[in-house]
């Protein structure tokens, strides 16, 4: 989806910007000024710029560019620093380098992103802990806060995006847990199976 938005929608936006530039040059060449037309064209330019910015934000949300470039741990550390700066909360990270596939990496990134969004919006917390580690061939990612908790008796769909994250985790063959208790805050965690990656210089298997 991110690739299609970049290629297809990007091409449409580029074409629209070219048409806007041609119309502006033709209006400027008219012997009689057309202020109303220029005003509407200026508004059109602003709308196109907003559309391009929105497209970039959607693409970034669908496939964060920093994650494949820097790796999962570095991307999570950057996300934690930005969250700490914007929210004013203390964020502590204990993140271990792990072997996971691209989809599993994205699931973990999204899990922590959704959890931090909920914390910043509703938890009234003062501290947040991000953890990523392996245990007996499994990988556990968790986000914990010391704020108020949501009602665990309500359906998960009321938990602002966490139901969607449960579907993503389970699609990767993992499990997701939410533990919340008054005075202890909320802990959202996902457990996935580690996927060892072959070394770059590993010999190729002989062809049949």
UniProtKB/TrEMBL annotation:
InterPro entries assigned to the protein according to its UniProt record, in alphabetical order: HATPase_C_sf, Sensor_HK_TwoCompSys, Sig_transdc_His_kin_sub3_dim/P
Membrane spanning stretches: none
Limits of the Signal transduction histidine kinase subgroup 3 dimerisation and phosphoacceptor domain: 1-66
Gene Ontology MF terms in the entry: kinase activity
Highest taxon listed in the record's lineage: Bacteria
Gene3D superfamilies: Histidine kinase-like ATPase, C-terminal domain (3.30.565.10)
CDD domains: HATPase_UhpB-NarQ-NarX-like (cd16917)
UniProt entry keywords in alphabetical sequence: Kinase, Transferase, Two-component regulatory system
Protein known as: Sensor histidine kinase
Natural source organism: Pelomonas dachongensis
């Amino acid at each position: 989806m991110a690739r299609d938005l970049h290629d297809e929608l990007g091409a449409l936006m580029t074409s629209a910007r070219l048409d806007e530039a041609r119309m502006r040059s033709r209006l400027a060449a008219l012997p009689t000024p057309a202020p109303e037309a220029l005003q509407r064209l200026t508004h059109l330019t602003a709308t196109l710029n907003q559309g391009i910015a929105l497209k970039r934000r959607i693409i970034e949300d669908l496939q964060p560019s920093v994650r494949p470039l820097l790796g999962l741990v570095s991307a999570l550390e950057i996300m934690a620093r930005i969250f700490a700066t914007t929210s004013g909360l203390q964020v502590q990270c204990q993140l271990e380098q792990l072997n996971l596939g691209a989809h599993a990496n994205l699931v973990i990134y999204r899990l922590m992103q959704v959890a931090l969004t909920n914390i910043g919006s509703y938890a009234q917390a003062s501290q947040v802990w991000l953890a990523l580690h392996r245990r007996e061939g499994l990988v556990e990612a968790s986000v914990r806060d010391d704020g108020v908790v949501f009602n665990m008796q309500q359906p998960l769909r009321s938990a602002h995006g966490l139901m969607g994250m449960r579907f993503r985790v389970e699609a990767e063959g993992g499990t997701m847990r939410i533990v919340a208790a008054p005075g202890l805050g909320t802990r959202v965690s996902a457990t996935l199976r580690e996927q060892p990656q072959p070394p770059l210089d590993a010999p190729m298997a002989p062809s049949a």
